[in-house]
Specification:
- There is one protein chain.
- With 222 residues, this protein is of the alpha/beta class.
- Helix content is 35%, strand content 28%.
- The protein contains eight helices and nine strands.
- It is globular, with a radius of gyration of 18 Å.
């Protein structure tokens, strides 16, 4: 195998505390992804882009892989998926002075929900957005959604629970933090994966390599 064949390029985006250009080792999930390839003798090159750009660069085969993503039918047509890298929960955040409860999609009717550009927020949000049950305002800056929630420009914010609290702790003081909470009912608990575009001639080789490395890394952590 040529030396160039033992190099892999991975397009990432900002998703602290799991992934971030300024986090130690690019974040805990980035370290797992990188270590999984390195365990199989690959050199890894990392690039940070807006998530939508990372997705397109990988779909077209300009970059080898991007991480981490929830599986959905549309993506499955264009990408091969690795084994699960992590499991995480998405929830709805709201202001305590605007009490909120929900059990089904119909309960979200007429709400304005802050979401993120390029993100798949799960089946319920996807269905509600497509059918117009609620208004989903997508913006590229996930942190800005929580600022909008604080000042009442959106009713709810959909986000990973850990990411949401991390972002708010970076931006808000204790008084501001005390005004926001999340609903106990999760929108979705999902697995997140490294994905590789099917246009990439090495897609099967790389996903097999990654899965072997991921299993090796996990065995060392346990």
């Amino acid at each position: 195998m040529l030396e160039s064949d033992k190099t892999v390029t991975i397009a990432l985006g900002e998703w602290p505390p799991f992934i971030g250009a300024k986090l130690p080792g690019f974040g805990a999930i980035s370290r797992i992804v990188i270590s999984s390839f390195e365990a199989q003798g690959y050199q890894v090159s990392i690039g940070f882009f807006p998530w939508k750009r990372s997705f397109e660069l990988t779909r077209m085969g300009d970059w080898d892989a991007t991480a981490v993503w929830i599986r959905n039918p549309e993506r499955a047509r264009a990408f091969v998926y690795s084994d699960a890298v992590m499991v995480a929960t998405q929830v709805l955040f709201y202001r305590k002075d605007n009490p909120f409860d929900w059990k089904s999609l119909e309960d979200l009717e007429r709400y304005i929900i802050g979401g993120s550009t390029g993100y798949y927020h799960g089946e319920i949000i996807d269905q509600g957005e497509k059918t117009g049950v609620f208004t989903l305002e997508r913006i590229p800056d996930e942190a800005a959604n929580f600022k909008k929630l604080l000042i009442g420009r959106v009713d709810l914010v959909v986000a990973n629970k850990d990411v949401g609290y991390y972002l708010m702790n970076q931006m808000f003081d204790a008084e501001q933090l005390s005004k926001i909470t999340h609903h106990r009912k999760p929108l979705e608990t999902a697995t997140y994966h490294l994905i590789i575009g099917k246009k990439n001639v090495r897609s099967q080789e790389l996903v097999t390599t990654f899965n072997l490395g991921l299993a090796q890394v996990r065995s060392q952590l346990n």
